[in-house]
Specification:
Helices cover 40% and strands 20% of the residues. With 507 residues, the chain is α/β, with parallel strands linked by helices.
Length: 507
């Protein structure tokens, strides 16, 4: 059977119907980020769409072009997020039935959002693949039309209207446009328009390290299916890209950049600082890639566009994003430092840290001769971590740089502690002190050298006040003197020596 001719995507994009439901989003200058990277960074704000994602463009363009008989029967899709909301809103606008099959693991926030738009939510399976299989069954039994999230010419054309807007909104030079890739619908549409109208502009695709199906497929020359994908950037977590999107991406896209979780978290923070908007991880891939691109090419004065393609962020992810952004920005370094268990060594180490902001300090007595301290220090650029490490070593403190150690960042930082047979006469206190530069070191320096610190836990949480949990070994005969010391110290504190949690896990 002869192959059907390829669609004329320029014509399809120019005639796409998206503005019945979508808005023309702004192209905003990221002024703070532009100053930091020395280039002109523009953000195409698809996070401003009514469903906080670009997906409704393609969904509506597909549905509005269906024959009336098909539309009257209704549509169906499988999605755990943005595409589901785009289909549901489009169906509401067109007055047709929309069945949305979602995995049972879908957050309640997204289920409620689809239902509020009038979509009939069907929960099935534990993954997108399970939901997709069930959607195909329902399509066949109920005569519904399947609206694919990316591998459909009308969907691709709808997404391509973003590029049409970019080139209309900024008619001056553009060096590159950075586009997140999941299944490939967005970049296929964007590249189809840009290469037809302004072929000198580079189109650069962005994927995460654990969801790079398109990059692997392009390198292999055929579609490669991943066995598993990471779910942090759930909007781009696709195991197998589309046939048509693979064809277009392979043909039109100039280059690819792979970003990691920390870089994405830092990019979310970058966009927040410039716009006060919080992107979902997939929405920040383009910004993360721009920073990596500038660092690799050492370019200055170029005009670089990132499509911020979504803002459907789960609230419970914000703590993780805030914490990991410091590593992605290369503004925090972690170390394991070994110091002698002898009087004065702790203070000597604190003096060595100097005026630097301490972001984390964890310690539990475990050896009569040596103390192992887990410490985080604020830095302004990555090579500072190596200089700090060398300085610690030069002054006699064995040090391991943990800044790039995933286990340290994910787990060990929360696990320093436990019971210790060496913690005799230990009393436990929670202290509160004003969170300002040098406050932690002043607190440590003010502790009486005659009483041994046997436990210490501090983590800067970005609050106005710092909170410390500290264990101090106080012999019975020193209790009166110790109480007088606490009164003179004048830091608000609560004794937790009798706390059942302490007795269960630390005593």
């Amino acid at each position: 059977m002869p192959r059907a001719p390829s669609p004329d995507y320029l014509k399809k994009i120019l005639t796409a119907r998206v503005y019945d439901v979508a808005i023309e989003t702004s192209l905003d200058a990221a002024r703070s980020l532009s100053r930091r990277v020395g280039n002109h960074v523009l953000l195409k704000r698809e996070d401003q769409q009514p469903v906080f994602s670009f997906k409704l463009r393609g969904a509506y363009n597909k549905m509005v072009n269906l024959p009336k008989a098909q539309l009257d029967l209704g549509v169906i899709c499988a999605s755990a997020g943005n595409h589901a909301q785009g289909v549901a809103l489009s169906a509401k606008r067109l007055g047709c039935r929309a069945v949305i099959v979602m995995p049972v693991t879908t957050p309640r926030l997204k289920i409620d959002a689809v239902a509020a738009l009038g979509g009939e939510v069907v929960l099935h399976g534990e993954s997108y693949s399970d939901a997709y299989g069930h959607a195909v069954e329902l399509q066949q039994t109920q005569g519904l039309t399947f609206v694919h999230p990316f591998d459909d010419p009308d969907v691709i054309a709808g997404q391509g209207t973003i590029a049409m807007e970019i080139l209309r909104q900024h008619q001056g030079p553009i060096d590159a446009v950075f586009v997140a890739i999941g299944g490939g619908g967005l970049i296929s549409g964007v590249a189809s328009y840009i290469k037809a109208v302004r072929p000198e502009i580079q189109v650069i695709g962005v994927q995460t390290r654990d969801s790079d199906a398109m990059v692997r497929s392009v390198r292999a020359g055929k579609r490669v299916q991943l066995g598993d994908v990471g779910l942090f950037s759930d909007g781009t977590a696709v195991k197998l890209v589309g046939e048509e999107t693979f064809r277009l991406t392979r043909k039109l896209v100039d280059d690819y950049i792979i970003v990691d979780t920390d870089e994405v978290c830092a990019a979310i923070k970058d966009v927040f600082q410039d716009t006060r908007s919080i992107l979902e991880p997939a929405g920040a891939l383009g910004v993360a890639a721009i920073k990596q691109y500038v660092a690799a090419h050492k370019c200055k004065g170029r005009t670089l566009v990132a499509i911020t393609c979504g803002a459907n962020m789960n609230f419970d992810r914000l703590r993780f994003v805030a914490e990991r952004a410091e590593f992605g920005e290369q503004r925090e370094a972690l170390f394991a430092v070994t110091i002698p268990e002898e009087r004065g060594s702790f203070k000597r180490f604190c003096e060595l840290v100097g005026p630097r902001a301490v972001t984390e300090f964890n310690y539990r007595i475990s050896d009569e001769r040596l103390a192992h301290v887990f410490v985080g220090v604020a830095i302004s650029k990555r090579d500072e971590a190596d200089k700090i490490e060398r300085n610690f070593v030069r002054h006699g403190f064995a040090t391991v740089n943990l800044t790039d150690d995933e286990m340290a960042k994910e787990h060990v930082r929360h696990m320093v502690g436990g019971r210790s047979p060496l913690a005799a006469d230990e009393r436990l206190f929670r202290f509160v002190f004003p969170e300002r530069p040098g406050a932690l070191m002043r607190f440590l320096s003010s502790l009486h050298p005659g009483w041994n610190i046997s436990l210490f836990h501090y983590r800067n949480q970005g609050a106005d006040y710092g909170r410390i949990l500290v264990g101090i070994q106080v012999p019975p005969q020193d209790r009166a003197a110790f109480d007088a010391f606490l009164e003179e110290l004048a830091y608000p504190c609560v004794e937790e020596t009798d706390n059942p949690v302490y007795r269960l896990f630390l005593r």
